[in-house]
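Work package 3, deliverable 3.1, input record:
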Amino acid sequence: MIIQLKTDIRQSEHVLLHRCLDQMEIPFYHVDTQMAKYLVCTPQRDFDIRRIGHIEGIKDVHRVSGPHKMVSSNWKVGRTSLRFDDGTTVGPNDFTLIAGPCSIESEEQVVKTVLELKKYGLKFMRGGVYKPRTSPYSFRGLGMAGLKMFHEVCRAHNIKIVTEVMESEQIDEMYPYVDVFQVGARNSQNFNLLEALGAVDKPVLIKRGISGSIDELLHSAEYVFKNGNEKLLLCERGIRTFEKAYRNTLDLNAVPILKEKSHLPVIVDPSHGIGIRKHIEAMALASVASGADGLLLEVHETPERAATDGQQTINFQEFESLVSKTRCLKDVLNK
Amino acid sequence: MIIQLKTDIRQSEHVLLHRCLDQMEIPFYHVDTQMAKYLVCTPQRDFDIRRIGHIEGIKDVHRVSGPHKMVSSNWKVGRTSLRFDDGTTVGPNDFTLIAGPCSIESEEQVVKTVLELKKYGLKFMRGGVYKPRTSPYSFRGLGMAGLKMFHEVCRAHNIKIVTEVMESEQIDEMYPYVDVFQVGARNSQNFNLLEALGAVDKPVLIKRGISGSIDELLHSAEYVFKNGNEKLLLCERGIRTFEKAYRNTLDLNAVPILKEKSHLPVIVDPSHGIGIRKHIEAMALASVASGADGLLLEVHETPERAATDGQQTINFQEFESLVSKTRCLKDVLNK
Amino acid sequence: MIIQLKTDIRQSEHVLLHRCLDQMEIPFYHVDTQMAKYLVCTPQRDFDIRRIGHIEGIKDVHRVSGPHKMVSSNWKVGRTSLRFDDGTTVGPNDFTLIAGPCSIESEEQVVKTVLELKKYGLKFMRGGVYKPRTSPYSFRGLGMAGLKMFHEVCRAHNIKIVTEVMESEQIDEMYPYVDVFQVGARNSQNFNLLEALGAVDKPVLIKRGISGSIDELLHSAEYVFKNGNEKLLLCERGIRTFEKAYRNTLDLNAVPILKEKSHLPVIVDPSHGIGIRKHIEAMALASVASGADGLLLEVHETPERAATDGQQTINFQEFESLVSKTRCLKDVLNK
Amino acid sequence: MIIQLKTDIRQSEHVLLHRCLDQMEIPFYHVDTQMAKYLVCTPQRDFDIRRIGHIEGIKDVHRVSGPHKMVSSNWKVGRTSLRFDDGTTVGPNDFTLIAGPCSIESEEQVVKTVLELKKYGLKFMRGGVYKPRTSPYSFRGLGMAGLKMFHEVCRAHNIKIVTEVMESEQIDEMYPYVDVFQVGARNSQNFNLLEALGAVDKPVLIKRGISGSIDELLHSAEYVFKNGNEKLLLCERGIRTFEKAYRNTLDLNAVPILKEKSHLPVIVDPSHGIGIRKHIEAMALASVASGADGLLLEVHETPERAATDGQQTINFQEFESLVSKTRCLKDVLNK
C-alpha cells in the first residue's frame, strides 16, 4: 500500500496516521522525494482502508500488490516523465537518444562528439570516467580530471552528461559535474550505492544486472526511490546466456514487461547488448519497435582507436544513419 | 569449398572431377537438390583451386570457410527467396505472415481462421496436428484425420499449410497435405528427421532449439540441404534463460546474426518467444524492425478456449491490429 | 492417482472399474508393463477414493500429486532396482559403472576395452554406433555392422551393451544386440522415440536434455513408462550455461532432487559433464558423493586417437584409478 | 610475468629494474603484500628475460601467460595455505568448516552456535550483520552493534569471524571485529570494494558472482592481490541457470578448474548452492569429493525461525551428521 501525503501535512496528522498504522500492526516507511511525500506500507494481511482514509493530510491511498511498491505501475496513473530544469524531458512522450564514447579520452574527443550530437539535436552525452573493468590491469578511465573537462565542454554546448558512478564515496565529488548518474550492470545490486543515490536530487539510470532478472532491476530502482529519489530510468543492456555468437543477449522482451510492471521510463543499450558494431543499427531499430523510451549508444569518431569497447561502437556516419532511421521508425509507431 | 555443377554435367566430367579431388585428398559430398547440383568439399588444408577449375561441367567454385557450407552466406550472391508453384515467394523481398492456432481443433475453427487470414491477404496458415507435449497426459493433436480436414479447407481457399512433423516415419503420410514442414524446437537436432526431410521437395521451416545456439540451427539446416533439400526457412522462437518474467527469451539478436551468416530467410515466432498474449504485438514489431523476413503467429478466435497455448495466442481483433502495424512498419523500413 | 491392478484382474472387474471412473469423470490411461498393470488417473478435482477402492482386481490405490505419475516417488515404497535376466541389478544397492569409448571404432578396440572392463568386474560397456553430430560432415558411427561386432565380442565375455538409439525405426533392428537403449541428450524430448521405447522390454537410459529441466527429464521417463516399459534409468550429463571454462555444467544438484522426486535409479555421466579429461576423476568422485547410483564413463585405450570425444575420454590407467577411488568412496558412504 | 623481489631490495636496484623495464617498454605494477614484494609485468610481446634476470634484488622471475597473474597457478610452486596468527591454517592440508547462521540475530543465538561449533572443533563462524537483500523492505542485519556482540562472544571462545562487508566505507569500522572479510556474490565485481580490501591485512573470501564466470572470479581475486592483500579464499556458491527445481546451480565443476588455474584455496557454499535444507548434506559431500578445501555452511538452532535463509539452513543435529560424514569422506580422499 502506498499512501500519498499532502506536502503540507501537519505534524498532528502525521502522528495520528502513525498511530493508526501501529494499531493495525502495519509496518511503514517514510519516502520523501524531491517531488512528494509518501508512506509505503507492507501489511502482512488485508485490512480496512477506511480506517486511515479519513485522516487529513492524506492525498491518496493505493493498494499495491506484488513485491515492488513505489516503482510499480499499480498506483500511478500514466507513465512517468523525468523533467530537467531546462524543460528537457525523458519519458513516454519523448524519444531520448543518449550517445557518446564508452570512455572519455580527451578534450578533442569530447568536443568532436558534442558537435556531432548537436547536429541531430541530441541533449545527452554518455561517457565513462570511472570504468569497471574485469581485469585490474585494464584502462580504468580518466577519473575526476576527465569528468571536469567533460563537463566544461558539455556545459558550453548545453549538453547533459550521463556517466557511471561506481561507489557511494564518489557521489559528492562527482555531483556538480553530472546530470544523470548511471549505475552499471555490475553494480545493479550494489545496495549501498543505490541507497546513497536515493539521497541525490539528480536522475539515476540503473542498468539491469549481467544476469539480473527484471524483478531484481525493479527492486534496485525501489531502493533508490525508497531512499528519496524518484528520478529514475531503467536500462536493458543484455543478459548473459549460453549463446556465444554475440556479446550479450539483448533482451527486448524486458521492454514491454518493464513498461507493464513499472511507471518508469525504459532505455535500451543495444551497444552492450549485441556488442557487434555492424548489428547495432538492427538492434536499435528493434529496441524502438519494442517500445523503448530511448536508447543509450556508444559512438566514437574512430571506433578502431577507442580506448575501450571499440568493437561495439559505431562511428559518426553510422550514427547519423541510426538517428535518422530510429526517429523515422518512432514517428510511425507514434501514429 | 562448394563446387556448383552444371545441371548437364557429363559422366566423364564427373569422373574427372572425383579423380582430381581424390588425388588432392579432399573429402567431398554430392548434394543434389531440387534446383541444382553441388559438391561440398571439406579439405583439411589449403590447395590450388586451379587444379579443378578448368574442368568442364563446373559452373562455379566458391571458397567457404567456417563450419557451415551450403547454408552459408559466403558462397551465394544475395539472400535466398523460396518460390512456390503458384508464384508465392518467401524471402528478403516479401514480408511473410504465417498465422493460425497452436493446435487444429475442428473444421469450424479452421474455416473461421482461414477466412480471417484471407481478409488480410495471408497465404500461409499454421496449425499443429501432431503436438510435442512435455507430459504424455496432455492433448497430442488430431493427427492425420485433422491434417486431411485442415488441408481440404485450406486448398479450397488457396491457403498453404505449415505444420509440424515429429518423426521421419510421418513424412510420407503427411506429404500430400503439407506445404511447409515445420521442425519443432525439441526436434531441432533430431538429425534423422532432418536427413529424411532432405529427401523431400517441399520447404522445411526449422525452429531453433530450446537452448540451441545459432550455430547449431545453421548446422541443422545444413543437414537438410546436404541431403538434397534447399528450400529452407530458419525460425527464431526464443531461448531458455534464467529469466522467469516470461515464457522464453525471444532472441532478436539472432536475426541480424543469421542474416549475416546465412543466405536463408529468417522467420520469427514471437508467440512462443515472450509467450504472453498482451506483449505479442510489441515483440512482433521488434521482430520486424530487427530485420525478420516474416512472422509465425498463434491466432485463435477465442484464445481462452484454445486446446493449447491459449496464454500466448492473440484473437482476431488483436491480429488485425498486428497485421496492420507490422506491415506499416515494414513499409517504412523498406524505404 | 495410480491404481495398481492385480495381474489376474477379471474382465468384469475391468469393466466395473472403467464405469466407476467414467461416472466420476476421471480420465485414465492403461499402463501395462513387463512387470505389472496400472491405471493412471488424472482427475481434475478431489474425489472419494472409496468409490473405487472396493473393486476386486485392484491391488492398491495411491494418490500421486504433482505432474509426474508412474515415475514419481510418491506411490512407490523404496527406490527401484532394475533386474537383468542373469541377476545383475542396477539401483540403490549397487554402484554400477558403465564404461567404454564414445564411438565403437573397431573389433580390436572393443576387445581391448572389454578385457579392461572385466579386470575390474564391470558388467556394462557403453559405445555408440549411431552418433548424433552437430555437423552433417562429421563421423556418424559404424551403424548396424558395428553394433553386431560389438555385440559378438561382448556376448562372448558376458558384458552388457549400452548404446544410443536415435529414432524409432532403428529399434527393431538394434533390439537383438542391445541390453540398454540409451536416449541421448538431443533426443531427450523426442516423444515419438520415447513412446516407441515404451513398447520394448529392455531397459532405457534417458539422458537429461542439453538444457533440459529436471522436470522435463522426469516427464520423458513418464512417456516410456506410460507406454509400457518401466525399466528406466535417469542420467544427468551436464547442462548448458554461460560458463565457458568447461564443456557443460555437470549439475550434481540434480542427483538428490531426482532421488527425492522419483523412484528410478540415477546415473551420472561426468565425461560429457565437465568434458575435460584431467577433471573427470574429480567429478566422478563428486557424483558418487552426491548419491548417484552409477556412472557412465568414456574410456579409450588412447584417447588422443579416439574417433570422437577424445578430449573428455580417460585412458585405461586413469580408468583403473577412477574405479578404485570411486568404489572406495562408495564403500565409505554406504557405512 | 611476475618478478619476485627480495624484501631487502635496495633503492638503486629498484631504479635499475624500472629503467630496464621502461627501456623494453614493458608496463609494470608494484604489488607489495603482507608477505612479499612483486612486480607484475604485462608485456605486449615476447622479450629476453636475461635482460633483467641479473639485477640484484630480484629473487625470481616467472613467465605467467593468461590474463590472471598473481592468483595464477603458473608461477607458484604448490597451492597456498592461509596462516592466522594463532597458527590456524586454511588450505590444501586442512579441511576447513565455516558454519553459522545467515544473519546474526541475538547474543543467545551466537552463544548457542559457538558452543555447537566448538563441540566439533570448528575454528570459524560465519554470520551476517550487513545483509544484501533484493528488496529494500527486507531485514538488513544488525549492523555494527551486532558485529561487536558477535565478536565479543567469539573472542571469548577463540572462534574466528567470517562476515560480509558491503562497501569500502565499512571496512575501517568493521576491521577490529572481523577475521575474514567476505565479499558476497552481488559484490563479486564491485571493483572499488575489492581494491579497498587490497589494503587490508586480513583474509578476504570472495564469492563467485550470481552469474559470474570462473574467469571473472579469478580476476576479482587479482584485484585484491594486486592492491596488496594476498590472503585470499575463492568461494563457489552456485550460479544462475534456467533450472527451477532448486535455488542456484551449485557448480562443482568450478572446484577442479579453480584448483587448476589458481594456487588459492577453494571453499564451497552448498547452502546457497542448492538452497534446499534436506539436500545440503548430499551437496556438501559432493563438494568435498570434488576437491574443495573447505565448506561454508548455514547452520541455525531452529532454521524455521531464522531471520533469513531458513529454507536452506540446517539445524544442529543435521550439522553434527554433516560434520562427521564430510570429515570421514575427507579422510578417505586424503589416503
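Chain C has a mean pLDDT of 95.
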